[in-house]
Design brief:
The structure is a single chain. The protein has about 110 residues and is mainly α. It is built from 4 helices and 2 strands, in the order βααβαα. A two-stranded antiparallel sheet has the order 1-2. The longest helix is centred in the first third of the chain and has 20 residues. It is elongated and about 60 Å long. The N and C termini lie far apart (about 40 Å).
Amino acid sequence: MKTREDLIRRALGKLGVLAAGQQPSAEDQKLVGDEIGPLLSDLSIRGIYTYGSDDEFEDEVFTYLATCLAVSMASDFGVAPDFAARLDAEARLRDIAATVDAGDPIRANYF
C-alpha cells in the first residue's frame, strides 16, 4: 500500500517539480493534496475507479492515480497537461477495477 504523501511525491515527480529524494514544500504538498479528493470523486462518478480511502492506495493503481493527479495539477505548476497520458491511465484504472473481486457472497436473512 502507498500513502497519500507517496501519491503527492509521485505526482510532483511526474510534473518535474520534485527531484528524486527531495521533499515537497508545504505549499506544493497542500496544493496537490487538496486535489486528491476531488480527483478520486471524479474517477468514481465516471465509473473509472472506485476508491475506499483517500489516504492509502493499492500498489497496482498507484502509478495510474499519480498520472491522473499530475495531469490534473499540471497547469498549476506551469506544465503543459498530457491528456493522452491521463486517458491511458484512466483506461488502465478501468481495466484494473473490472478485475477486482467483489468479495465473499452476502448471506441473506429472510423474514
